[in-house]
Amino acid sequence: MYVAVKGGEAAIDNAHRLLADRRRGDRSVPALTLDQIMEQFALGVDRVMSEGSLYDRRLAALAVKQARGDLIEAIFLVRAYRTTLPRFGYAEPVETGRMLVERRISACYKDLPGGQLLGPTFDYTHRLLDEELDGDPEVEGGRTREGAAEPVASVADILDGEGLIETDGDLLPAEPGDITQTPMEFPLSRAMRLQSLSRGDEGFLLALGYSTQRGYARSHPFAGEIRIGEVEVEVFVPELGFAVPLGRVQVTECQMVNQFKGSAKAPPQFTRGYGLVFGQSERKAMAMALCDRALRAEELGEDVVAPPQDQEFVISHCDNVQATGFVEHLKLPHYVDFQAELGLVRQMRAEYAARQADSRSGDVVADEVQEAAE
């Protein structure tokens, strides 16, 4: 038994060395630096920060490099590192209305106060491979930030001014809770659901959001506003008696506007679906907003008839770190379990064969009796 254990350890050490070799790749090709990953794989870094639930571009870039570009593995690495960090407090609620936006679009209004800002986007590209990128052409100038110099009003505020959409103040409690500190018990508050969705897997939420548009929990959404930009993060310091700014982070916010026919307690009005994630990740923010609205079905008196409206289904399965752990643990040894299953199947097959033999014997006897009677 000791020899088997030592042999297993040697195999694991060799696997680690092979992984490091494959990670480096062809030595004639220059090694990737973290600065290159941060600057040129920025959207991958943003996803790792968002679903890893830790805003640190360099650590996210390191995780991407260590994971050989496997973003879910990188997210896992960031989450694991996050658990080692001390928690010294909570930030004040971020005022996204004061965001310095670099991209801001609305599908509801053509002419917005402050204007539509296209910013850096794939939306208007032709999705054709650009062979010129193979030569890695240099673009003149350094990295620049273009956008609104001052905060701009949101579409939701415009609708709220006419009383056409539910007010923001009714949506969240004063104490939102913390899913990383409190075990989840269903039903969850909307604040806890939003936390889970914010770091949930983009692909899973995208599929669920898509399903709501295909008729599963149909709610006819409009992209009220999608904005990307920097917001200031502040922490209240009791000794000082006021909040102190820690710096700025880039976020993507989506306000989805949905139809609502009204009820005995509320007139017909629009309702909201909300998404907020780290970095530039508007597809994830939109999918989050679609799922958020679907999960509010019971609160709004709607029938819960589809998976996106079932919060236990959505929240329990949206976390790719948990999902990865549960799926990939199947690669670990299950020798004892399988031998038990193997023995059970063999026993069941033997019993089945015996029943079949008895049945055939009974048929033969019946045939002989029939022949004797004739």
Question: Which spans of ≥5 residues are poorly predicted at pLDDT below 50?
Answer: 1-5
Structural class: alpha+beta
Sequence of secondary-structure elements: HHHHHEHHHEEEHHHH
Strand runs, count: 4
Tally the structural domains: 2
Strand order of the largest sheet: 1-2-3-4
> Largest sheet at a glance?
4 strands, antiparallel
Helix fraction bin: 40-55%
Rg for CA atoms: 28 Å
Number of helices: 12
N-C termini distance: 69 Å
The share of residues in extended strands comes to 5-15%
Quick check: average pLDDT? Answer: 89
Shape: globular
Provide a brief overview of the structure.
With 374 residues, this protein is an alpha+beta fold. The protein has twelve helices and four strands, in the order αααααβαααβββαααα.
Characterise the protein shown here.
Helix content is about 45%, strand content about 15%. It has about 375 residues and is an alpha+beta fold. The chain has two domains: about 1-80, no CATH class; about 95-120 and about 140-320, no CATH class. The chain is globular, with a radius of gyration of 28 Å. The model is unreliable at about 1-5 (pLDDT under 50).
